Amino acid sequence: MKKTLPRELTSYDFLKALAVILMILDHVGYHFYPDEMWFRTLGRLCIPIWFFFIGYANGREITRPILIGGAVMTLSSLAAGQFLLPLDILITIAIARYYRDGMIMKALRSPETLRGMFLILFFATFPTQLVFEYGTMAMLFVLLGFITRHREKIQENIAGKYLKLYAFTSYAGFYIMEGVSMPSLSGPQALVMLAGFIAIGWILWNFTPKTYPTLTEKIPKIFVWPIQIMGRYTLEIYVLHLLLFRTLGVLLYPDRFPLFDWRLAPGNMMGILT
Asked: What's the Cα-to-Cα distance from 35 to each of 32, 89, 98, rounded to whole Å?
């Protein structure tokens, strides 16, 4: 049964719209301004949001649109002369949904199991990110989303201080990983990214489902509509804008996006894979 969405703006709409804007900035930088790291600095802030909602959601269904979208994105990457590995983030999302419940059950038995799960997921990121985008680092935020939604119940077994420590180390670990993957970041860019992760972390930690009927009436409809579109059609926006960007890349920058001249993995990964 298809879920009926409220006519009013919701907290989901605002947060997902923010993630979409940051995501598009990231991809604009990658495709059209590869030497301007500000796009990537701001764009990477969207990643925790996407995986947070996998854990925050009540269900874990791997839908057909996600699988089809992942296949389309993989094929379009190859057509645009990019890489087979790591597999597209939609594949990561499917993997995260599949393993979500089992991971949560094992992680939330005690402070020790939570600590152990963090260490496993963090250090497993190094090999797994060669295969699918963001590797097992993504699962840290999936678990964080579940913790946020069920915090009161979880605190019967795990004290709040350990949950906060888990949240802090998850963002710190992701920040370190992003810094390693983007060594050309300047000092100001690194500081902005740090501040951004702190802000995103605070927003997600305090996230609750809300509707805003009064605000919806006060905001001009011309602004309400784009926010709801971005908040409720994230998969479609992701697939369509990347198809457009990759097509433009092939047409405008054939040296960087050679048609059908795809490679197994980026050069910095090939030395590890071969």
From this structure: 9, 23, 36
* Cβ-based neighbour number of residue 201 at 10 Å: 21
CB 116 within 8 A of CB 259: no
Residues in CB range of 117: below 8 A, 6 or more apart: 103, 106, 107, 143
φ and ψ of 130, to 5 deg: -75, -20
Beta strands in the chain (DSSP E): 9-10, 211-212
Largest Cα–Cα separation, the chain = 58
* Calpha distance 117→133 (Å, rounded): 19
Taking only the tens place, the pLDDT of each residue in 204-262 is 999 999 999 999 999 999 999 999 999 999 999 999 999 999 999 999 999 999 999 99
- Quick: pLDDT tens for 64-117: 999 999 999 999 999 999 999 999 999 999 999 999 999 999 999 999 999 999
d(C-alpha 116, C-alpha 183), whole Å: 29
> How far is residue 136's CA from residue 134's CA, in Å, rounded to a whole number?
7
